[in-house]
Amino acid sequence: MLITLRLFLVIQFLFFCFGANANETNNVPKDYLSFSPKQAETSSEILKKLTTQHFRKQKVNDQFSKKFLFEYLDALDPTKSYFLQEDIDEFKRWEDKLDDMLLAKDLSVGFLIFNRFKDRVTKQLQANIDLLKGDFIFDLTKDEVISLDIENAQWQPNKKKSSEHWQRKVTEAYLRLILNEKEPETARELLTKRYKNQKKRLKQNDSKDVFQIYMSVLAGMFDPHTSYLSPKSMENFRISMSLSLTGIGAVLELDGEYTSIVSIIKGGPAEKQGILKTGDKIVSVAQN
Fold this sequence. Notes:
The chain is of the alpha+beta class. It has 2 domains: about 1-230, no CATH class; about 245-280, PDZ domain (Pdz3 Domain, Roll), CATH 2.30.42.10. It has helices at about 35-55, 60-75, 85-90, 100-105, 110-135, 160-180, 185-205, 205-220, 230-240, 270-275; strands at about 1-5, 5-10, 245, 250-255, 260-265, 280. A 4-stranded antiparallel beta sheet has the order 3-4-5-6, with helices on one face.
């Protein structure tokens, strides 16, 4: 655990998901993400540290639970673009139960909600891709309104309304590209690439990512500047703060998509090994 100013970071090692009973049905999809026993234990330690060591004392009760639920929903879908009102109505049955579930080391609702989110987003992104590659004609002469007011956004009541809403969003994104002097076909290609990349990134999420989001929202309940970082995120945080990775004896700097080696620390492991050179780019990190 590291406390710096108002930043309260709880660090625990996470292991691969062993598969827990996080779904209420027996028909669990292959890509359904579940929490592991280790994550359940870690969540208990995090909650204990937050409730006993954080400077702001919070009562973990039904009121806390309700706020926690909606903070989590907001973290996943801040623009209210993917969940439907029927999803929210379903999730509300847990609004006074999350506190008890946390105390019981039960993270199933957090994972269930994320899996629903993942399903909604995946299907919507594919619908956007299909729209762009189909025979849909963007009618830029029609008067349409799309609200960009996130503060007062509402969940779409049903799939039909959501589909209409997204058609307007895709049209708005298309119009922006046209106004930036992109050719119609180029605009379609750029949007298709954008949605495919978003879909790819979403698919890469694993149980560790879900756990980090859920625990970070939990930590944020105690203070906006309090967050949970997984070991990987914590290492990235340390690198970004110090621009060095003392473990290998090299000074690093983020350079666009990759991390570049700025210099080799004299006498360090990297210098002794003689493989890494100044200017090299780190494209991936292996784990033993």
